[in-house]
Amino acid sequence: MNKFKIAVAVMMIAGAGALGWAEEKAPAGKKAGLNIMEVVLFLNANMGMPEGSDRMEADREHESLRYYSKDGRLVEEHHLDEQNTIVSTTYGPDGSVKSVNRITEASIRGGVEETQRRHDQEEGPAVREAVEKHAQAAEAYAKAHGGAYPIRMQELTQSEAPYLGKCLCDQEINMYHIICDLENGGYRFTARSLWPQYESYVITTGDHVETKGNNELPRALPLQHSKSPCEETGLGIKGID
Question: Coil, strand, or helix at residue 34?
Fold first, then answer.
């Protein structure tokens, strides 16, 4: 079980409002703080079991989690020590210990802080800039066409002198889903955050930028929701320059 996955789990738990509950439920005798066992259980429920395992046994009272193969062999186990550290042990086919790893609460929180920093300083701004380029391209098109806005993304990307170099409609970029709507003589470009705790960006006709919480947006729809995909097939171009 690697630190990155656990950091991701903590972010998801925090976004779902469960992190506070987990902290409040810290076992008696341990300092108040993150109940890491909640994170381990969350990982199992949302990110799959270890390779070679068929079933799981969780013991909240003793703060342990064990994974077994189909033939009943112990494959992997996790428990919390007195310092609230996850101790993870993997076993070979003969029952011998293959590896022992320790993941501290501090390292998990450090990973969460780094994920937050990367979002705030790098990934979030990059997505916003990319979506703003779509709006700026639509505005440039309208200026060159007597105020008429494009009705298809291809008009921005496939003209003789393209207004937009890279279309991101219906793509997932840096944990944002890009949605493009060209309708009613205007546009609405949305970068919808896939993290519930982060705001989404919405840019509408006139290059007006708003930040919104996901609860302020229409209910999330599957990919290929964009009314104006990058190509007729709905296939976009991934990446950000």
Answer: coil
